[in-house]
Specification:
CATH topology: minor pseudopilin epsh fold
Number of helices: 2
Number of strands: 11
CATH superfamily: minor pseudopilin epsh domain
Shape: elongated
Structural class: alpha+beta
Radius of gyration: 25 Å
Oligomer: single chain
Order of helices and strands: HHEEEEEEEEEEE
CATH architecture: 3-Layer(bab) Sandwich
Largest sheet: 5 strands, antiparallel
Strand content: 25-35%
CATH class: Alpha Beta
Amino acid sequence: MHGNLNKGFTLVELISVIVLVGVLSVTVFYRLASVNSVNVQSGRDDVIAALFFAQQQSMMRSNITLVIAANSVSVNESGTPILVSNNYYPLTMPAGVNLSATINTFVYDKLGRTTAGTITLTGSGNSSGASASIRVEASGYAYY
């Protein structure tokens, strides 16, 4: 008679293979996934942060403006860039990201309100084909 032969894989072997396949699939996905939108998304987040910063500053200071240029955004007080963490505005967009806006200068009042408009970020070079749009409401609220 033959002894009791166990056929198949143990639970530990099955879990090890599943974990290994999961790690490999995540690695391959990130290597093959399109990274051209990363710079545009980063630029979008920088512009949103500058819009909120300008709104907050306008409630504490006078003559706050946010100026949109082709590849930078600047928060100014009476035309002079504001110092933030040892760096002055303007903030330059990541490589390959260009800005355009329906209004190039957003002027804020003491309640944080400004003129409504849209800011569009488009990618070029390695970021070609990627774009993002930011909507600024008259209340000063900005979103994408």
